[in-house]
Design brief:
The chain is mostly helical. It contains 6 helices and no strands. The chain has a single domain, classed as Orthogonal Bundle (Helicase, Ruva Protein, domain 3).
Length: 160
């Protein structure tokens, strides 16, 4: 029975590898877009009502920039660790701190709604990507259920 569960776990390996690679590319592109959008917003200065610079909104932009960057770095670290685990790196184990995505760094949308659309879009996209990674991690870490036929055979074997 353990052999069957072990075989089932390795069946999904190419799919997991492809998922990790695709998500890694997506995360790196999003990180580059975030860098560009936050730098542009910072360079242009956040303008408040009446066309004057809004110092509190500039601080909010800096904080949300750090939160978004942190969120993306957690995602990228998780993906790199999973890539190492899939590749069989002996230094990358399922009990390492990088093997868990952890708790999300949540954006303050009361502040974010005042940013330009490109910045808001990137913040939202980074939150969605984090949620996707957390869902994938939960699914991958769920115990692999034996196929119904194997479960029936195990019950029959137990009765004999």
């Amino acid at each position: 029975m353990n052999r069957v569960v072990s075989e089932l776990a390795t069946i999904g390996l190419p799919v997991r590898r492809a998922q990790v690679e695709n998500l890694y590319v997506e995360a790196m592109v999003l990180a580059d877009e975030a860098h560009t959008a936050f730098a542009a917003a910072r360079d242009l200065g956040v303008v408040g009502v009446g066309g004057t610079r809004d110092s509190l909104l500039q601080i909010g932009l800096a904080c949300e920039s750090l939160k978004t960057t942190t969120r993306l770095m957690h995602i990228i670290a998780w993906l790199l660790h999973r890539r190492a685990m899939i590749g069989g790196d002996p230094g990358a184990g399922p009990n390492d701190s990088a093997a868990r995505i952890g708790e999300p760094v949540v954006a303050d949308w009361d502040i974010c709604v005042r940013f330009d659309d490109p910045v808001r879009r990137i913040i939202a996209a980074s939150e969605r990507l984090f949620e996707r990674i957390a869902a994938i991690e939960a699914g991958w870490d769920a115990p692999v259920a034996a196929p119904p036929v194997q479960a029936m055979l195990a019950r029959l074997e137990a009765r004999l």
